[in-house]
Amino acid sequence: MLSRRGFVTIPFVDAHIHLWELGRIRYPWLTPPFAEDGPNGSVEAIARDYTLADYRADMARWNVVGAVHIDAGADPAQALDETEWLEGVADAGGLPSAIVAFARLDDPDVEALLAQQAAHPRVRGIRHIVNWHADPLRSYTPRDVTQDAQWGAGFALLAKYGLSFDLQCYPAQMAGLAPLIARHPDVPVIINHLGMPVISDPDGIAQWRAGLETLAALPHVAIKLSGLGFIDRDWTLDSVRPFLLAAIDLFGTDRCLFASDSPTDTLFASIERTMAAFHAIAADFSDDEQRDLFARNANRLYRLGLDL
Prior knowledge:
The chain is α/β, with parallel strands linked by helices. It contains ten helices and eight strands. Helix content is 35%, strand content 14%. Helix 5 packs parallel to helix 6 (204-216) and helix 6 packs parallel to helix 8. The mean pLDDT is 96.
């Protein structure tokens, strides 16, 4: 849906963005030295302030009517500082519409932090990145915390505070997570970045599909269509199309959310190319389905209250 000037008119609730001011809050992953051998390669290109003004400028062509800020990897000791800063940004600039904050679910004292996070008006959920892989260069964590009883206890507390959970894991962890998620239907779960298939693993694609099938069987689980560069740093529309369509097929157009992952995904492609890919994929769906994928699902799942 294009205007005469190329402005995309369909409403977009961006389900996954990051903002940061590096002089205000410490982000260990955005702090030198940088190396190519991490899970994302070098992040030096985005290790600079990224403000709401920068985001609005990058998204000027797209009809952004809402955005959800996801925990941006701040120093855990500054988790509340990040939330408080974002509340101020939103008060002054109208975005983000909602916040998914950080808490370490395996911390025995996590409940105090959950209560403090949930007290902020825009906080809707929690993210604790749990990507573990046998290859230490792919792993975000030294061990798979999702199988710890303490982590499960932290997850169970989310419902008490009305919080959803943004799940960033690898496919090999999904079957192990499914029983815990199934036991807590009152904790909505939103899978990040298409479930992050590891296509270099011998059975990586099959493992990804099997993992998503297991989680898609749970009606309170949804998935973000984002993070294309995590599949393939040199992705093309043709290379990612099967993954996007498979996710939509498994979860349906009512449980999938397009998201820019700005600015992280600019490590791999421009926002223009990412958004153009999403619109190309969505073109074969009905107008109603497109509105769900681009805005209404995020509005519902993150309880934004927008009139869409």
